Amino acid sequence: MDTHDVSNVPEYFRYLQAQKQNLKNAQAAKGRPARSPKSKDEILMQFMFRQMMRTEAPASPMNIRSSFLPPAYPPCVSPFSKLKKVMIKSLCLETHHRDQYLLLRTVTPTDTMTAVMAIVEDEDGSVLMLQLYNQEEELSGTHSLREGTVLVVNEPYVKVMADGDYGIRVDHLSDVWFIPEFDDLVPLSWRKRVTQADGNASSWKEKGSEHFEKGDYHSAIQCYSKTLEAHPSPELLLITQLNRALSFLKSYCFDAALRDVEDVLQVSELSEKALFRKAQALYQLRRFRESCQTHEILAEKYPDNNMAAHEYARASARLLEQNSGEYEFGKMILEAKKRQPPRLDRGTYIGPVTVKQTQSHGRGLFTTQAVKAGDLLFCEKAFAHAFHDENGSKDLRLLLNVDMDEATIGTQGELIELIVQKLSKNPSLLPGFVDLHHGTYKSVDVLEVGVIPIIDTFLVERIILLNSFGCPLLSRESHIRTVKGDDDTDKKHNKQFHSSGVWSMASYINHSCLSNARRSFIGDMMIVRASRDLPTNTELTFWYKSPMTRDPKESPVNLQHWGFKLFKTSKMNLRKIEDTISSLASTYCRPASEVPRVALDSPYLSLAAIYASSRNLKKAVEFGLMSLESLGFVIKGGKIPHVSDTPLVVQKWGLMTDGVVGCWMILCSAYQELAPTLASQAEGYARLSYRICVGEDETFDQTYSRLSNRVDGFLMTAK
Ligand SMILES: C[S@@+](CC[C@H](N)C(=O)[O-])C[C@H]1O[C@@H](n2cnc3c(N)ncnc32)[C@H](O)[C@@H]1O
Fold this sequence. Notes:
By secondary structure, the protein is an alpha+beta fold. Helices cover 39% and strands 16% of the residues. It contains 22 helices and 29 strands.
């Protein structure tokens, strides 16, 4: 939705088809031995050379890197004890080696493109390229996957890569695990030094703390786990669990941190550190009420703990937002502009809405009480948000999905990585996420094997494909661009965002061209407001893609050259234009209040603007009202001559486009002279429409003013 979908753009369509053909060609090699014709030295040299070339290549702005999703395959769900070891020499191409595993170690440093890559060898010394997808960025850093790291790949999938070489591709995080040097699985010949696999509890704890000090939380956790296995004293047990909990917190594994501190609290129910870490883990899992409850105990028992007091205030603020829906939107805008990525520390407010079954299109979101246009329905923090800085130098990614025939430019690939990582670290979040619509995709129904959570990358990908939203940094900025924009290409780009995210509640809203709600964004917060008055139990709908941004060439009557600016300079006879628009209007057989006339609102708005600038204010009002009416608005009391004491009333709200705000402002300035009592009412409607379009109205006065030089009240200084 609003993502930069290029599936039908000829060059990308051809590229997608070429990838599909490559895949077909590769299938012809299925089952052949995966033995590379190149020698081990050649493979190593080639890898190192490519890595060097990439490091030295100057970064080119707006480069597009492509990544390509293979046909979906399930993650391994067999316990390791049931898998048989396989050697590289026995691997076959284009084959998933079910019920087998590879024991490997890296023999090169890593190279990171869309995957983390390294050359690996097995115990025979045979080598192959390994491509690990969806891993954390830090994996290729100093700690996790340095040269000599030993790892296991479950049920390896060997494929012919883009350059014709062979490689092992791992898409599911649970299909690869990194083995600590001290593990019994590591062959003696691969050990750099003789590590003691059976050290005592305190020495493991010391090692864990050394790793922690260096910021290597992954190794720290491994060593603390060894401490716990080595029968520590009761005191050491508690210390280690607390230390491991902290390492888990630092590694974003909040479920595991919570488990450790709960164990400590069983024994020592008022442990200050355990309570504090519990409150932190709950906060990060967005369980603000429980976090506050834990803080309450802390505050009572340890009133001098300033850090805890500070965190308590933070958790309380989130809980307040969650319960009240009251946000300081102006502050949020400033924060979103400052932060990179613009992830805001705010609670999610779910207002008068609930998920229910619809008659014909799965589940939908419904109102639980009557709401007014502009009311906040919910304000939701993204489950995951991948930001692309349009002014930055980071490459854009083209994601090709051959199963779904989709090609998207933007951050969809990054979103997959963020979500699989988040879920595998915090499986308690899995039920809420996999509940989202995933079409016909059937995933494995195993949630974990041993203690390892199973996250099906292709399920995540499908959910993202069907539920993610493209988003601007700020809807206000995109509103400003739309209002300023005088060129269709610009307008189109404005609705094809490269940043993207998943917002769970918003994912239950179905599409309708006659949308009755509108989404807007401040950083990774989505704000959804009613765009018309809605009775209780109304299904909410919004545009997945705005009907206003369709290609004007596909329009039955091409009015694109009647843009705002051209209109102003056009020598065309206005009368003739009016006649043409009115003959077009007469082709509609249903009233606009039932079926909006989306081809007409913009020409009418342009006429209103032209008449306003030539001081023909009566006509400006006439066409301003007609523009709104063509969007489905039913407005009473706005016509000129105005009957005194008759208020300006929107009896029915129509489609809420960005242009509606300026239209109300044109009316406002015309009424100032023709019917002064209506001016403030029109401005009030402009403010309300602005709130629906950009999510808030705290910035209205910085964006529109009756004193603006533009007839639509827009301030050219707005940014
Ligand atoms: C983001 S989900 C919306 C919630 C979904 N109906 C559910 O049950 O979870 C998007 C999917 O809903 C369905 N959908 C949305 N709008 C629809 C519409 N106007 N008509 C039919 N199906 C629709 C399509 O299957 C679409 O892929």
